[in-house]
Amino acid sequence: MLTLFDLLLLTLFALAGIWFWRAQEAREHALRATRQHCQREAVDLLDQTVALKKVWLRRDASQRLRLWRLYQFEFTVTGGERYTGHTEMLGPRVLRIELPPHRFVSEAPEERLH
């Protein structure tokens, strides 16, 4: 026989599982978007991962309350320097991906290292 307390515990575990599942989906979406952005900007995403730094509640354009997430990642241009970038998401949408000022490597043939 299930008591009310048992049902409450089952509900809490189910909600925690759903929240964890949705958080993993959001992280995977942020990682895909970050990889694509790094390819377009000709930088290398280090460790092939993003790390959750902040979570907050914010309203979207239609005034619905959504989870706002800020992910951090590291990238390099030269292979010797690491830079930290950020991917900002609101619900399932990527709001922006920021790369700080970083070194630019020229593709001119006379400047390439052999």
Description:
The protein has one helix at 4-40, and strands at residues 44-45, 51-59, 65-76, 83-90, 93-98. By secondary structure, it is an alpha+beta fold. The protein is elongated, with a radius of gyration of 20 Å.
Q: Structural class, from helix and strand content?
A: alpha+beta
The tally of helices reads 1
Strand content bin? 25-35%
The biggest beta sheet, please?
Answer: 5 strands, antiparallel
What order do the helices and strands come in, and which of them pair?
Layout (H helix, E strand, L loop, with lengths): L3 H37 L3 E2 L5 E9 L5 E12 L6 E8 L2 E6 L16
Antiparallel strand pairs: 1-3, 2-3, 3-4, 4-5
List keywords for this structure.
alpha+beta; 114 residues
Quick structural overview:
The protein contains 1 helix and 5 strands, in the order H-E-E-E-E-E. With 114 residues, the protein is an alpha+beta fold.
